[in-house]
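Memo to structure team: turn this sequence into C-alpha cells by end of day. - J.P.
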Amino acid sequence: MTDQSEVIDPAVLEKFMYCAAVIAAKYGVIDGNPDIDDEIKLALHGFRHQAERGPCTAAKPYMWNFVEHAKHGAWSKLGQMPRGEAMSLYIAQAEEILPEDWLDSFNKHKSGEHAGGDAADQQSGG
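Reply from structure team:
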C-alpha cells in the first residue's frame, strides 16, 4: 500500500492535470488512437494510474485479454514509485505527442492569460 500522505509539489500536480486535460481534449481516449505508438499509450496509462491511484493492487487480467494485460503490466511494473515522480514521468512522456506550444499554453493558463483560450479549449474546439 502506498503512503497517501505523500506531499506532491503543487506545481507538478497542476502541470500533470493540465497535461492530462490537453491529451484528453486532443486525443480523447488514447487506447484506440492509431496515431499514438502503443508503447507511449502504455507508458501514459501506467504513469497516470500510478500518479492518481498509487501502486497497482488490481488483479492481473487473463493473458488472452491482451490489451488489459498489457495495461496492467505497464502500471504494476512501476511498483512503489512515488506519485509525484509518476506525474513528472507522465508529463515527460506526454511531451512526445503534445503540440510544441502546449507548455506556452500551460504557462498562460497558469498566469491567468486566457485571451486566446488554453490548449485544452483549443483542442476541443471550445
